[in-house]
Amino acid sequence: ASGTFVFSAGVSAGSYYIIFTGPTHLATRSGTITVSGSSVNAGTLPEGAAGDIIRDNRINILDAAYLRRRRGSSNALADLNRDGIVNETDMAYIRQNFGRTGVATGP
After folding, report:
1. Dist. CA 46–CA 53, nearest whole Å
2. Is residue 90 within 8 Å of 79, Cβ to Cβ?
3. Do strands 39-45 and 3-8 pair parallel, antiparallel, or not at all (unpaired)?
4. pLDDT tens digits for 13-39?
């Protein structure tokens, strides 16, 4: 989820960014974060798009197929809105974000 986060940096002064993801969400990147002391305010972090069920950092037909096969179940991975049932509401996330990819997470 998006929000404001404050953490103890434990890193040298400089400019950084954070790449983060969550279950079924694409990886996303923060803006530049400047470290100048022992505590850093990362500010508001963007939320990654929901629908990456198979965790390949893209929302595509494989995610849609996984969800479709579990329609009517309580499968936690396919239940994108966490209401306890896999249904059309979850498929709407796939349709809305279809074709999107997350930011690169490697070095």
Report:
1. 19
2. yes
3. antiparallel
4. 788 888 888 889 998 888 888 777 666
Q: 12-50: buried (b, 16+ CB within 10 Å) or exposed (e) per residue? A: eeeeeeeebbeebbbbbbbeebeeeeeebebeebeebbb
**Two tokens at 89?**
């509401």
SS (H, E, C) 12-79: CCEEECCEECCCEECCEECCCEEECCCEEEEEEECCCCEEECCCCCECCHHHHHHHHHCCCCCCCCCC
pTM reported for the whole predicted model: 0.76
Lowest mean pLDDT of 42-46, 48-52, 84-88, name the range.
42-46
Question: What amino acid occupies position 19?
Answer: I
